[in-house]
Task: structure prediction
Amino acid sequence: MSNKTPIVAVLGGGSWGTTVASTCARNTPTQLWARHADTVREINDKHTNSRYLGQLPLSPGLRATEDLAEAARAADVLVLGVPSHSCREVLEQVADHLRPWIPVVSLVKGLEQVYRLRMTEIVSSVLPGHPAGVLAGPNIAREVLQGYAAAATIAMPEHRTAEMLQELFRTSRFRVYTTADVIGVEIAGALKNVFAIATGFGDGLEAGDNTRAMVITRSLRELSKLGTALGGQPETFAGLAGMGDLIATCTSPHSRNRRVGIGLAQGKSVDQICTEMGQVAEGIKTSSVVMKLAAERGVDMPIANEVDAVINHGQPVIESYRGLLRQRPGHEILGEAW
Result:
């Protein structure tokens, strides 16, 4: 980036994309691209996004647009905040409008289903030459927007780039740390959604606090095993993007993936739950991808396997917990059994 004040373009008008755009707008000129005209008008005229964030006020300097090409042409930094299944399509649309070498930061905590790619891998495929990284952590959008203290990690292939971008996202109450472990941060962000669904199973069955703690702890173990097998650094999974995001997503009443698990335990269908929420829960689509990646790497993931069985193979939630408890526990750290 040059010495001029960088312009940030955030693609995606959902809860987290809007929150990040509002945060960036406090530091630098920021434009948000949203698909819906009513959302764009509301952000520009009222400085709110009621569809996703109620009446919480956004930074008055934030501007929104329906014109994807306009947002891309102006960008010195591109932030990707659309659902994982839309990422490739959106990136292909901006490819001819984005200037060379503009860094792309993903907010997306999911994996592409067909090719089992991380979002930064899609960026590298569609936008070769653009540095691709990720911002992730225990970030409930409403709380960040309300100014509660929070933190995240920004990962870029070159650590110096992460340090430069760090200043665009951070505020006095939103701390942004840096790393070069793009793989670890990205994998942690995708996998924790699957485990939040598993935690929701227990909460929906009213299994209790001990069960919740057990599931979260063993989920972290599974997340770390697959994450390191895919090339992530072990330290990352004990940090904000790993353990931090896992705890927040597995325990917050605002967590969409946890709500999916609760709904399934209560006998609702996936379609019914998604309709009621009106938002994307990435863990639903990620669950099958995780199992394919685990099989390719020879990683045993019993909790993720049970989530996949419920979502994609019709297994009742109660059977998932019975199946887990039937497994013989081995060594807590070395053993393969749950």
